[in-house]
Amino acid sequence: MTTTSQSRSQMGSIAHDRGVAFRVWAPNADSVAVAGSFNGWSMSAHPLVDEGEGVWSAEVDCANAGDAYRYVIVHEGVELAWRCDPYARAMASSVGDSIIDDPAYDWGSVPFRMPDWDDLVIYELHIGTYNDEPVGRPGDVARVAQRLDHLVDLGVNAIQLLPPAEFPGGFSWGYNPSSIFAVETDYGGPQALRDLIRASHDRGLAVLCDVVYNHFGWADSSTWRFDGWYQHGKGGIYFYNDWRDRTPWGHTRPDYGRPEVRRYLQDNALMWLEQFRFDGLRWDATSYIRNVDGNADPGTDLPDGWRLLRQINSEIDTRQPWKISIAEDLQNNEWLTKSVDSGGAGFDSQWDAGFVHPIRRVLTRVRDEDRDMQAIRAAVEHSYNDTALQRVIYTESHDEVARLNGKSRLPEDISPGSASNYVAKKRSTLGAVLVFTAPGIPMIFQGQEFLEDGSWHDDDPLDWTKRDTHRGILQLYRDLIALRRNQRNTTRGLRGPGVHVHHINNTDKILAFHRFAEGGPRDSVIVVTNLAGRHYDRYRVGVPREGQWRVRFNSDWQGYDPSFGNQPSADANSDPHGMDQMPYSIEIGLGPYTAVILSQDG
Q1: Are 60 and 22 spatial neighbours (Cβ–Cβ below 8 Å)?
Q2: Per residue in 563-578, pLDDT tens?
Q3: H-run or E-run covering 318
Q4: Cα 104 to Cα 179: distance, rounded to the nearest angstrom
């Protein structure tokens, strides 16, 4: 438990050695008391003292972790409906009592080390559907833990959880938080989440947390008109009370101009990173934190939102600089990932719309002649601030495959109603090759590795039978991830920053690029992609060095799927005449809709 000196600076209910400290911000309250299971729900037994600046506090020696409580707030002589604690770490439900949580936890004796960011491979998952049955309650964190060994076997080293904070009901994406400090009750609550994170760390998996600071959920909100004050029919002290409150998800944008609200959000970010030991944060829709309408119109900019982004990222970098902060902004704004010192928002990386959208457009074209190889080139070479790791690249995410958004899994988009046919398998796995070989931090969405079809929704569990049905596709993903992480010490360049798209054949729809860290044997990697439905026994591309180039991967191998063509693509010795602005060249075999990856031993 915490000490009493620590509890005096924290907000919420803080269990310590001699009871529980309660601290709450209610600047417009006449009086505040705490009622709970520890005092028979008395409205008067434990009044809070006004500390000044709107903060009320009390030490309650008869309260303990696990007790339920609410605040009794009087505003302008009127007793409000008893309020849940905005800082509550646990809830009985989204409309139930706040629960005192004790953050003390046995994390084990072996410290976890965050993987180097150039080694990160992220697996995005939704707790409620990752490992669940088609009927009944949603899945929980304990059921996620049962499938962690699948992720270790796949080779990923980071899982990114869709928001775990309390939301109304049991089924949700998580982007409508009602209480941002509490762990969703149907997911198992705070102790179960700690168990999942420890189990992940024990297996070498980092865990990233999705946070929602651009709006709060409009239903069951613990902050709505909290102390009775509000203006213009708006939300009160935690929200903008003018036109700046509007978002696509309701009139619930936090008031970033209030230092107490900025502290509330910063305390939340630090809670996930320090009390739960998450290894990084993924921030939802940051464009709606920095701009009312999520665009570049200076008339609707929110300077206070920029201040919030910079404030929290600076604090994270000061306290735990090895933990990663990722923005989902999708506006191609390099200032998100510029340093705070240079005027940027201080994010370490951001989701790259400049990759996912053009890649999906090209792969889903029905006719080969309509595929734009220059669009592929631009997507492969794109970066922010000339830094490869400042972007996260993917072809599937919860947004890109969601039924609610009118979208589908990539194989489904390629072949609607027939997502397991030859073309869907071939072209969707070409997308996977680009994710794992282009510069950036690669990410896949749950089930992508075994060709999950249709569209994703929060009540539609993964079909784990596809893990066996498409075991070859699963092996393809394993092999790509091993190459991306250089686990065989033959493809170091896939972790490096260097990229040069040196061969573009827009007529035959073939593109090749060189990836490198420093270059040379076991570093330089050549990726050749055929985005058309014809094969080649011999196709010539340029290479940067003489000697033998060994095939490390051929996506046409029938071991990945019996329907694949098994087009031979043998190791090749370079020829002395150059091409593609390279000093040497090689001939390789290429199957239809196939990628071949090569490097040198020495």
Answers
A1: yes
A2: 999 999 999 999 999 9
A3: helix 303-319
A4: 21
* 595, two tokens: 């990628």
d(CA 216, CA 342): 30
Can you tell me the distance from the alpha carbon of 514 to that of 582, in angstroms, rounded to the nearest whole number?
10
- Per-residue DSSP letter, 436: H
Q: Nearest to residue 254, comparing CAs of 217, 279, 281, 283? A: 217
pLDDT in tens, 325-380: 999 999 999 999 999 999 999 999 999 999 999 999 999 999 999 999 999 999 99
**Mean pLDDT of the 64-90 span:** 97
pLDDT tens by residue, 477-519: 999 999 999 999 999 999 999 999 999 999 999 999 999 999 9
- How many beta carbons lie within 10 A of that of residue 463, not counting itself? 15
- Using an 8 Å Cβ cutoff, are 421 and 338 in contact? no
- Alpha-helical regions (H) of 171-302: 189-202, 259-270, 287-290
pLDDT tens-digit readout, 304-328: 999 999 999 999 999 999 999 999 9
Over 70: is that where the pLDDT of 8 sits?
no
Nearest Cα neighbor of 388 from 479, 528, 497 is 497
CA atoms of 187 and 209, how far apart (whole Å): 14
Written as one letter, the residue type at 188 is G
Containing H/E element for 430?
Answer: helix 422-437
CB 183 within 8 A of CB 133: no
Task: Using pLDDT thresholds of 50, 70 and 90, give the confidence band for residue 22.
Answer: very high
Under a CB-based contact definition with an 8 Å cutoff, are residues 593 and 512 in contact? no
4 has pLDDT over 80 = no
Cβ contact 213:270 at 8 Å: no
Sign of CA dihedral 26, 28, 31, 37: negative
CB 143 within 8 A of CB 132: yes
Distance CA 306, CA 287 (A): 10
Return the SS3 of 46.
coil
Q: What is the pLDDT of residue 240?
A: 98
Cα–Cα distances in angstroms (integers) from residue 443 to residues 148, 356, 398, 432, 593, in the given order: 17, 11, 11, 10, 22
Query: Token match 């026994």: residue?
Result: 537
> Is the Cβ–Cβ distance between 225 and 292 less than 8 Å?
no
The token pair at 40 is: 């028979």
Question: And the tokens for 43?
Answer: 């409205």
Angle between helices 303-319 and 259-270 (to 10 degrees): 40
The two three-digit tokens of residue 93, written as one number: 């439900």
